[in-house]
Amino acid sequence: MASTSRPLLRALPRISHTVCAIRPSLITSTRATPRVICSQQRFSSDGSSTPAGKSADAPFLGTTRLPEFSLKDKVVLVSGGARGLGLTQAEALLEAGAIVYALDVLQEPSPGFHNIASRAEKELGTSLHYRQVDVRDVPNLNKTVSEIADKHGRLDGLIAAAGIQQETPALEYSAEDANRMFAVNITGVFMTAQAVAKQMIKFGNGGSIALIASMSGTIANRGLICPAYNASKAGVIQLGRNLASEWGEYNIRVNTISPGYIVTKMVENLFVEFPERQTEWPKQNMLGRLSAPKEYRGAGVFLISDASSFMTGSDLRIDGGHSSW
Ligand SMILES: NC(=O)c1ccc[n+]([C@@H]2O[C@H](COP(=O)([O-])OP(=O)(O)OC[C@H]3O[C@@H](n4cnc5c(N)ncnc54)[C@H](O)[C@@H]3O)[C@@H](O)[C@H]2O)c1
Asked: Where are the membrane-spanning stretches (predicted)?
């Protein structure tokens, strides 16, 4: 049925609303008339508003827009943060305001690390630090984590991204190689989370932990033979649920992120050895392409910040629909 009011609505002029408020503190003025503070807001058709004089795409979001995503003054660790996905996560956490420590087995972080550290100091008003740690060396891991927490009097978050990959058919896998895989990808992640949780409990502020698992923790990859890696990532997903169930009482949340294929240095090297994968892998998901590390930035900040305050024991699978097919 046609609405008769439509032509009338179309004829109305666009209205710029003026929002006025009386500041109570100013009513105590000796003058009889209270000062009225008015600010002009433009309301757009989608209901959003922009304070007068400010451009909608102003670079600084301020402290009142989506404050639950802010990590200002929080101290967050990223294992495997020297390069790749871990370093990209570290930069996102810095942009959200956190002080970030990257822990990694490499003696020196990748060259890109130093650019991000300099950007943190000059542009973001925060800092990025590096500590060389092998996640299998539990005494050094605990020492490093407790020193960082003591220095700041708090520890608020962890993204555990340290991990290794090995492509070997199951019939040829040695026990030594399998144990190495599990030592880094499961026990290493477990001990890192434990070291961090101990400090979170000591300082009493709770915190949030995100473990980097993989879609390979749920599915077997077609054309990528890595049985121990995939078992290790299934272990990370199950570890996350169990840590969440034990540490909820301390207000520590634990979740996992399960990425699909990400084009990092590791994957680029594989494409040199197996060029057909570059065309085959993208066909295996619903978006027909592989992902970039930056496509996980939002997930990391979401999980570490209060934006996910009621989320724990969950797996966030981000794989272009690969494992939904
Ligand atoms: N690249 C992908 O397609 C993909 C997909 C899903 C999940 N992941 C996971 O994402 C995480 C990051 O992977 P990436 O692709 O950035 O690879 P990467 O090799 O660039 O990063 C892994 C980092 O972990 C560090 N590391 C390895 N062993 C360590 C140890 N014993 N102690 C401390 N640090 C150690 C490495 O030095 C490296 O900096 C890994 O857990 C990986 O399994 C990657």
From this structure: none
Kindly give the interhelix angle for 189-203 and 227-247, rounded to the nearest 10 degrees.
Answer: 20
Q: Is 43 exposed, middle or buried (0-12, 13-18, 19+ CB in 10 A)?
A: middle
User: Mind listing the pLDDT tens digit for each residue in 182-233?
Assistant: 999 999 999 999 999 999 999 999 999 999 999 999 999 998 999 999 999 9
Q: What is the dihedral of CA 49, 53, 56, 62, to 10 degrees?
A: -90
Best of 164, 189, 239 to mutate for ligand 1, by most ligand atoms within 8 A of CB? Answer: 164
Tell me which fold the domain 70-324 belongs to: Rossmann fold (3.40.50)
Looking at residue 168, its amino acid is T
Q: Which three-class secondary structure state does DSSP give residue 284?
A: helix
Intervals of the chain under pLDDT 70: 1-63
Supply the pLDDT for residue 46: 33
Question: Is 0.70 surpassed by the pTM of this model?
Answer: yes
| Domain range annotation of the chain | 16-48, 70-324
156 C-alpha vs ligand 1 centroid, how far in Å? Answer: 22
The span from the first CA to the last CA of the chain, in angstroms, equals 42
**pLDDT for res 106:** 98
